[in-house]
Design a protein that fits this description.
Blueprint (H helix, E strand, L loop, with lengths): L4 H4 L7 H14 L8 H14 L4 E3 L6 E6 L2 E11 L26 H16 L6 E9 L8 H7 L8 E12 L3 E3 L2 E4 L1 E10 L3 E2 L9 H17 L8 E10 L5 E2 L2 E10 L2 H21 L3 E7 L5 E3 L1 H15 L4 E3 L10 H4 L4 E9 L20 H16 L5
Parallel strand pairs: 3-4, 3-5, 5-16, 6-15
Antiparallel strand pairs: 1-2, 2-4, 6-16, 7-14, 8-12, 8-13, 9-11, 10-12
């Protein structure tokens, strides 16, 4: 096999490192919410065409882009994925490239993911003559909002004929220079619920004449904690969190309705179903006991991300080659959600974390925080891992 180390360890083409950062900063400056990524998708498509006019570029949905790099020799197909959407958060960073869109920011690193995959396209396109098979670059919309963009792209056929799928996530909780891999369970199913309690309002000084939705809601919140602590096997991983409780507008009025919202996170399908059913039983019982009615809306989100063991082993080997054994760590399963799981229903896949935190630069804020950012030095690591993964998974001419 020829020495290809210059692709991922040594010199890059002139200007690529600068373009990588510039792409990220442009995307960060111009964020777009899930299912609204029109300008982002246009920017990605135009950049891809400028990189390599021979790429087969398609728009499976109005706000997504897929590029196919067909090698000169027959072989298998690898899909590489980056997500592109931003979050409804007002940015509190003072960067020159901070969000120019009020109330919207890239607070989860998707701007970096998109920039990394664009750079990987350029490096891998230069190797077309030695490539066996196909690399399919998926620039996905709407990772942050269920039902998510991944399921739409799967339904549009972007995974047809794909043998493996690989994705990366910049992680501020992981130190710069490290790469986190996970075997098996990595990210949970993120299900959401909304409960509307309907009682009978009245004067707060005469509570016996009302059906107090706040008191009923408080009992639901307290009893929902029993789903994990008393109704679920301690060996099963489950989170039930009530994150919103909205009711009332005055200090002396008992409101006639209250709204509870929250999330349930799990890995096992049976645990997932049981948690939903138990929550419904709790709401039914408490509401009935106090003469209230209710609406119960429960949305099953993404399936859990479960990494393929054999594919993860290959990616771990690639990571070790890039950053060394000591810098490759095992990532424990987390209760965040990721619609990368939709691709894993169609082909073996693995998802890794790229360390991007750096306390020395003040980069310590978690994902989805108004001051979230990542160390841009991590971008090069992500690009190199995309390229090295492709090299190891697909056969090259020697």
């Amino acid at each position: 096999m020829t020495d290809k180390s210059n692709i991922y360890l040594e010199e890059w083409p002139d200007g690529l490192a600068e373009r990588l950062v510039a792409w990220r900063r442009h995307l960060h400056r111009h964020p777009e919410l899930s299912f609204q990524e029109m300008n982002t998708a246009r920017f990605v498509e135009e950049t891809l065409r400028s990189i390599d006019s021979r790429l087969e570029i398609s728009r499976p949905t109005p706000t997504s882009v897929v590029a196919r790099l067909i090698g000169s020799k027959p072989g298998r197909t690898l899909a590489l994925r980056a997500d592109m959407d931003a979050l409804p958060i007002q940015e509190e960073n003072g960067f020159e490239f901070a969000s120019a869109t009020p109330g919207v920011m890239h607070a989860c690193g998707h701007d970096g993911h998109t920039a990394m995959l664009l750079a990987a396209v350029q490096l891998l396109s230069a190797r077309r003559g030695q490539l066996h098979g196909e690399i399919r670059f998926i620039f996905q919309h709407a990772e942050e909002l269920p039902p998510g963009g991944a399921v739409e792209l799967v339904e549009a056929g972007v995974m047809d004929g794909v043998d493996w799928v690989f994705g990366e996530h910049l992680a501020s909780q992981l130190p710069l220079g490290q790469i986190g891999v996970a075997y098996g369970d990595m990210a949970a199913s993120p299900d959401n619920f909304t409960i509307v309690i309907k009682g009978y309002g009245g004067h707060a000084g005469f509570p016996h004449r009302a059906v107090d939705t706040i008191a009923i809601g408080a009992q639901i919140v307290a009893n929902a904690q029993h789903i994990v602590s008393r109704y679920t096997n301690p060996l099963d991983r489950l989170v039930v969190s009530v994150t919103q409780f909205t009711a009332g507008a005055s200090h002396n009025v008992i409101p006639d309705s209250a709204v509870l919202k929250g999330t349930v996170r799990s890995f096992g399908e049976q645990v997932r179903q049981d948690a939903r059913d138990q929550l419904l039983r709790i709401v039914q019982g408490i509401a009935s006991a106090h003469g209230a009615e209710f609406d119960f809306d429960y949305v099953f989100g993404y399936k859990p991300v479960v990494n393929d063991e054999a594919l993860t082993r290959v990616l771990e080997e690639a990571a070790v080659e890039l950053v060394g054994r000591d810098a490759v760590v095992l990532s424990p399963p987390g209760m965040s959600g990721e619609d990368f799981s939709a691709y894993q229903q169609k082909a073996p896949g693995t998802f890794v974390n790229i360390g991007a935190g750096n306390p020395e630069k003040g980069i310590v804020f978690p994902h989805h925080h108004p001051k979230f950012t990542f160390d841009e030095d991590a971008l090069a690591t992500g690009v190199r891992l995309f390229v090295r993964a492709a090299e190891k998974l697909l056969e090259w001419d020697s």
